[in-house]
Amino acid sequence: SQTIHQWPATLVQPVGSPLSLECTVEGTSNPNLYWYRQAAGRGLQLLFYSVGIGQISSEVPQNLSASRPQDRQFILSSKKLLLSDSGFYLCAWTRGGYTEAFFGQGTRLTVV
Amino acid sequence: QKEVEQNSGPLSVPEGAIASLNCTYSDRGSQSFFWYRQYSGKSPELIMFIYSNGDKEDGRFTAQLNKASQYVSLLIRDSQPSDSATYLCAVNMQGNTPLVFGKGTRLSVIA
């Protein structure tokens, strides 16, 4: 069966510090991968998605970036965090086509 | 602009009642439709999907799709306090593109 791992679960970082969140999927190959952010009491905001290694589409211009160095690994990064980067970050995967998305456990990021 | 609209709620229903959650979408060519449940502080979990017009039942949950009206709904029968959560509607409007999510409806089941 397929599983998605996302870590860490919680993170408190000072303003201006770097960020690296990692997500890996097991049990499937060539998944579509996604990073979402959910601010408190708000909906899901799509940040990045990838349909293959090295292929990244950005939905929202900001100080975040994403990379896909391996087929089942997706990394979200920032060089300098802002207070507004606080939120609940979710990694997800799909098989492609018209299929459903499966989410990781999420990372609660608080920038102080 | 591809959009999915949901009433934010909160929708309050008594225990044992039927909860009805609604969703409309903008792209008439959309092919697949999903309902997710999200408990506070947790990630969304898939509870239902539907591809064809009509009803689809799974236990206490029924998804209803009307493509002509661009409308999807989720019925929860015999609502329980454990059903209290935010319910997200998601639509796949074009193959191999990200799902478009609504902002979610918060459901509160009162014991």
Structural class based on helices, strands and sheet pairing of chain A: mainly beta
Beta strand count of chain A: 11
**Shape, per Cα inertia axes of chain A:** globular
Low-confidence stretches of chain A: none
Shape of chain B: globular
Residues in helices of chain B, as a percent range: under 10%
Work out the helix count of chain B: 0
Q: Residue-averaged pLDDT of chain A, rounded? A: 93
Largest interface: A-B, 24 and 22 residues
| Number of helices, counting only DSSP H or I runs of 4 residues or more of chain A | 0
Poorly predicted runs of chain B? none
Structural class computed from helices and strand pairing of chain B: mainly beta
The Rg value of chain A, from CA coordinates, equals 13 Å
Q: Termini of chain A, distance in Å?
A: 38 Å
Helical fraction of chain A:
under 10%
The SSE order of chain B reads EEEEEEEEEEE
Intertermini distance of chain B = 40 Å
Major β-sheet annotation of chain B: 6 strands, mixed
Oligomer: heterodimer
Instruction: Indicate the radius of gyration of chain B in whole angstroms.
Output: 13 Å
Strand content of chain B: over 45%
For the structure shown, list the relevant keywords.
heterodimer, A: 112 residues, mainly beta, seven-stranded mixed beta sheet, 11 strands, 0% helix, globular, B: 111 residues, six-stranded mixed beta sheet
3D architecture notes:
The complex is a heterodimer of chains A (112) and B (111). Helix content of chain A is 0%, strand content 58%. Chain A has no helices and eleven strands. In chain A, a hairpin with a 2-residue loop joins strand 7 (64-70) and strand 8. The N and C termini of chain A lie far apart (38 Å). Chain A is an all-beta fold. The mean pLDDT of chain A is 93. Chain A is globular, with a radius of gyration of 13 Å. By secondary structure, chain B is an all-beta fold. Helix content of chain B is 0%, strand content 53%. In chain B, strands 2, 4, 5, 9, 10 and 11 form a six-stranded mixed β-sheet that branches. Chain B has a five-stranded antiparallel β-sheet with strand order 1-3-8-7-6, with no helix packed on it. Chain B is globular. The N and C termini of chain B lie far apart (40 Å).
